[in-house]
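Reading a protein record of the kind used here takes little practice once its layout is understood. The fold follows as a row of integers, each naming the local backbone shape at the matching residue. With these conventions in mind, the following record can be read line by line:

_____
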Amino acid sequence: MGQSSLSEGRAILADVGVHGAQSALIGRSAELDRLTAVLDSAADGLPGVVLVGGDAGIGKTRLVTELAERARGRGFDVLVGQCAELGDALPYLPLADALRGARGRLRAELDARPVLGRLLPGGTDPGQETTSGLTQQQLFGSVLGFLSAQPVLLVLEDLHWADQSTRDLLVFLSRMLQAERVCLIGTYRTDDLHRRHPLRRVLAELNRLPSVTGVELAPLDRAEMADYLAALGGTDARVIGEVVDRAEGNPFYARELLDAASDGCSMPDGLASLLLSRVETLSDSAQRVLRGAAVAGRRADHDLLQQASGLDDMTFEDAMREIVSRGLLRLDGEYGYAFRHALLQEVVYNDLLPGERTRTHTEFARLLTLREGAAAELAHHYLAGHDLAGALAASVEAGRRAERLGAPAEAHRHFDRALELWDRVPDAERLAGIDHVALALRSAAAAADSGDNHRAVSQLRRLPPTAEVNERLAYFLIDTDDLRGAIAAAHAAVEAAPGGPVLARALATYARALYRSDRHDEVEALARRALETARAAGAADAETGALVILASLAALADDIPRAKDLLARATAESSGNLAMDLRAIFHHARVQYENGDLAEAAATADRGLRLADDTGLTWSTFGTDLRFLRFLTHYVAGEWDQAEKVAAGFGIRVGTPAEATLSSFALFVEVARGLPVVAERLSWLEPFWSRDVMARYMGRGLAAEHALWHDDPETALDHVEAALAALPPDDPAVIRLSATALWALADLGDPGRAAEADAFLTRARVPAAVGPGSVRQGPLGPEGLAWLARAEAEWHRAHGRHDVESWRAVVEAFDFGFVYEIARSRWRLAEALLVSGDRAAARQEWELAVGAAAALGARPLGAALTGLGRRARFTSARPTLLTTREQEVLALVAEGLPNREIGERLFIAQKTVSVHVSNILTKLGVSSRTQAAAVAHREGLL
């Protein structure tokens, strides 16, 4: 790439510069084709991300500009945002920059999302400060919903300057875009990525994703460079030759060198010298303004820049006209300017004398103190101007603003900077408006909110061990699974708490820590005390937390009415803390679900999801947990179309344990429907099976079922054994896994493995006798009891016995509303009845199972029932295997029509026809369309 000669048909981009010259997009046809392919895939619903790297000026922006033109021609809306070299001072700056370009339908979609509107100029902050960490997910969820509305090309330029939150957003979108018509392009400078640059890790992580395409622009060769300079208007062969030699394949360098030569400037040995030589041709007033713009950053506000320059209106406008005409600055929005190239801003800034730089930063800081919402910029200028007191105060305010904008990483960075300055600034507490411990607590909370609980713990351990510090320390230690440390810290918090809200929260956290341990006998007294203290102190969040713990204890004691009553009280009114509200709603729905009240659980989960969706918190912790639960209620209740729709949002291309757990849930419906996506999802999940217990249990357990539907019981047993190895013997999850293993052993039909079957049944019985959910710690719910019944029935089958009563008990056990498991159990019950000689009863159970399988779209079960029906000669009921749409497709298949014509007749996509045909072949037990047509005619299915 970049070494081939210029060939006919290469894309040319007309780029009218300040002199009206045209620049050519030369030597980039292969790269442009790769970007266009991703764009076209996005138009078809397969989103993609392209990361375009290269040295400064290598042609990244020109390449992306051409892609943007192609995107507009294909009906895409195009949004372009640029990062600025301000570090983490302004979170989400490129997103805000891109959103400013929203027009038409995109603008209407943006106006409907006030969360995003806060990022725009004039946008209002969220109404209430929070350290819950949910506002980042709120923003991310809103961005994803905003992009989902229509085909969008989103370009984020100069990611080497991106702040932490923007990098987080880039990772989030790269992983979560699954079916949206979105093409995301990010550009970055490879020559700016030093060894410890934070973007390096992000690039390494994202480039492993199949949805991400990496494109690195190499220097142009000499022939391409010469053609490029000629397209720019170069006519002097000598000048062109010198520029080609010195530009070393960099189009930006070449253009700047050519422009400098055209202006009569000398041609220095380096790019910085060249750029400064162009600056030196400006008038004194223009140079003064440009130096001020360089201190302001990549962009400068018109009024602010004029005030900093000290020039009158006329002189300033003449200076700006001169600068813009030379192409050094360009108009940016209605009231601002931006450096045409970031390198120009860098070299001008670096050319300033130290005292001049400090004075200018100080002047900008003075001017910014008169403006609202400029805390982050103020902190930047104060620090650069060596005003430590101003930097401390501005950093604290910038941290508060970052919290409100949902940027916890930036909030932590600002707070941490203030803490670093604390001992160097006299009267720091008065300047910060907060004491040192409170600021450290806030910084730790921001660290935890950004996902760094270990950093939060480390920061808190350096503080005096007050009650409030220990309570927060215990809370974060629970989240890092350091239960022993959490219990010790929570106990210390309770002992030291003076009373009021601090004591209420300490008691609630202590109860939460002990609930996670085996000291359940101490939890209720603590929770009751926390409840009383919270009510007396007016600590609504602690009150809600205490109610949740008491309800969980009631559920363990099988006092479900009391548990529901406590949770209803916990969710009746907002606690003022959305995280706590969602937690309470989730536990309410969980208790309902675990006790077989599917309709109630669905309604409660829907309430929580509406709350999360209305506030943009779909991707928050409990917003995600509620989606898990809602998916399960859809799945259990037989609402599989809805379940599959939810599962489609559980990303396949996972990169973290949390994402892997979420993805594993999708396997329930995908395995049961026999969807092709199962293999791909399992391949992405496999690396996490050794790293995360939940991902291993869910993923390997359902991989075992997948193997069983494909007649591979030995592989199923391998998966079960591996999943069981990660679980304690008394975990209720052991019951389902053991039942699956007994299914595999029964399918093997090897009498020599009877002892193995006995061992699995013993393992299934352990959680019901001694573990969580047992009689000792609360009885198993309906589903746990049903799986235990399934294990008992499969054990009989593994011993060569088809026990009718055992399978009838399984059907009854799942009859709390688990549609699929009832059908699967009827399948085995029909087999047992046939063996017993009760053909009529067997046929009745078989027909009920066939109807359920067809309604659910459970292809593997449907195929198994087809086989059983064929062996039992239950052929007259075969039509009920096919859905109405499948019967329509089968009729056209029998006419000999190809999928394309079938799709045209039925007004459905050709891909959808292919899925229906595959289902028909499976259900009819045939391998070709011809055989399907023959069966259809022979058995009257048409």
About this structure: Strands lie at 48-54, 77-82, 152-157, 182-189, 212-216, 299-301, 329-332, 336-339. The chain has a mean pLDDT of 83.
